Amino acid sequence: MQRKEAKLSVWTTLFLAATICTGRATAQEAVPSPVARIGETQKVCQLTGDIDWETGQPTAARTLTNSGLDAVDLGYPVEHNGKLILLFGDSWPPPHGAGPLAEVIPDDSVGVTTRTELPNSESCLDLVVHSRIEGGRKKFDPATIIGPVKVKQGFFNVPSGGVSVEGSLYAFFWTNHCSQPNPLEPAPESPLQRPAPSAQCPETDDRNSIGRGVMARSDDAGFTFSDVVKMPEGFVYSTAVNTRIQRDLPEEQELGVFIFGVPRYRKSVPYLAYAPIETLADQASWRFFAGRTPEGKPKWVPKAEWRPSPEGQIYAPVGDKDYNVGEFSITWNVPLHVWLMMYGGVAVRVAPAPWGPWSEPTVILGPTDHPGCRLVMTAEGCGNRRDYWPGKRRGDKFQPGGFYAPYVLNRYTRADAEPHRATMFWTLSTWNPYEVLIMRTTIELARPGGPPPRIERPGFPAAPSDAPTQQNEHP
Questions:
Q1: Average pLDDT per 10 consecutive residues for the chain, totaling 475 residues
Q2: Whole-number Å distance between alpha carbons of 73 and 414
Q3: Among residues 157, 133, 134, 120, which one has the least CA distance to residue 43?
Q4: Buried/exposed code over 114-135 (b: 16+ C-beta within 10 A; e: otherwise)
Q5: pLDDT reported for residue 27
Q6: Sign of the CA dihedral with 464 first, then 468, 472, and 475 last
Q7: Which residues, in sequence order, are CB contacts of 328 under 8 Å at separation 6+?
Q8: What b/e sequence results for 208-236 when a residue is b if at least 16 CB atoms lie within 10 Å of its CB, and e otherwise?
Q9: What was the pLDDT predicted at 207?
């Protein structure tokens, strides 16, 4: 308790200093200032594929040779029974062809590591991908939902997050989503409203541009999932945090499992709910965030009273530019004693509690870091580097890469030698190359005289909805 009170004292002191410096003093808890990135964000290693796109050298995992996995994105990390499970997205080569079945047949690979040493360029994460021998060849074994409830798990129908509870692995799946969706715009008052239909996406309950979320349980470390539960209204692209396994968490936040979800992919701000650990699968026991009191305390309502609305958003967006959360992770950062959300391409917000108040975003990796031909493909090409999307070329122009799906690998987060700093390791998807990288970033809590943050709004790759067309072209 003494250690927890000391950390709370540091956090309070920093908040008060930030409030004095910015002149923002309210009846509510002070809004934290954005964190500052210290130095550059660095690539540690390429996690997936056989050949490192930047260096041309073999990757540590050689996932194509060892597991039949050539290329992939996402890789949401879940701490589970001493292992780190990585829930990947659409995986190459896909185990299906084109057409309607391409959105149905499972194609999301799963990785696992028991490594506790920090990732490095030589051995990366010691990743092993679930695989099997078929026809004399190794093939990745996709996470597969079994049982009477049929769930689409093909192109652009992917796992969005997961959590370990009472010895079982729970994953959240985004499904009934068109592989070529129609464009979405922010719609905070009616976030589940579908756009006009098109030939590629009819906007029916079975196939639409919003999709829906389900939760399922695995008792075999992610090979198979069952006991499907439809997610509550608005929790379309979701993930969760089990507070029981978080160290040094404030007692008033030890509420069970926090569930975060966005209703409108990359055009939303997350909603929040919590569930008792013993009744995670029973949504009648969930309580949903419905805003904060004038004193800054969270207001909770039962499912019967819950409706997606701006009051349920965990922070107030500054115009449409802040409705930009799609793939995201929210973790409890022990060294800094803050909740940390990482999203977009690539930004970080921090808060003292899941319900806020949340800071403005700090960009920790973006175009000003000159990633071209270092991390991603440029429109002009990158010499003889592999082009993962040859069908997207327009004349002599290549499909550029971009940043998305940044997920914190919290088991590797470390306190820095300098006070109020922490170093994080996290996954990053880059589109072209269509692989997952391990990155490293050091951040610092705001303090008087400290380095200024980069307050920007993160962007995304140019055309992620074209993935299925291009994946069908992949050998």
A1: 38 40 47 94 98 98 98 98 98 88 95 98 98 94 96 97 98 97 96 97 97 98 97 98 96 97 97 97 97 94 97 94 96 97 96 97 95 97 96 94 97 94 98 98 83 61 43 36
A2: 25
A3: 120
A4: ebeeebeeeebbebbbbbeeee
A5: 42
A6: positive
A7: 239, 260, 262, 270, 341, 342, 343, 344, 406
A8: bbbbbbbbbbbeeebebbebbbebbbbbb
A9: 97
Residues 6+ apart with CB under 8 A from 115: 84, 123, 125, 126
Between CA 399 and CA 391 the distance in angstroms is 9
Which residue is listed with tokens 């994105």? 73
- Closest residue by Cα to residue 338 from 323, 353, 316, 324: 353
Q: Which two tokens stand for residue 184?
A: 């979405």
Tell me the one-letter amino acid at 348. V
Local structure of residue 177 (DSSP, 8 states): B
Domain ranges of the chain: 2-188+202-473
Output the pTM of the full model. Answer: 0.91
CA 154 to mean position of chain CA atoms: 19
Burial class (CB in 10 A: 0-12, 13-18, 19+), 37: buried
Query: Phi/psi zone of residue 290: left (φ > 0), alpha (ψ -120 to 50 degrees), beta?
Result: alpha
Distance CA 348, CA 330 (A): 10
Residue 216 tokens read as 């399922």
* 142 in Cβ contact with 95 (< 8 Å): yes
The whole-angstrom separation of Cα 436 and Cα 70 is 11
How far apart CA 404 and CA 183 sit, in angstroms, is 18
pLDDT at 463: 40
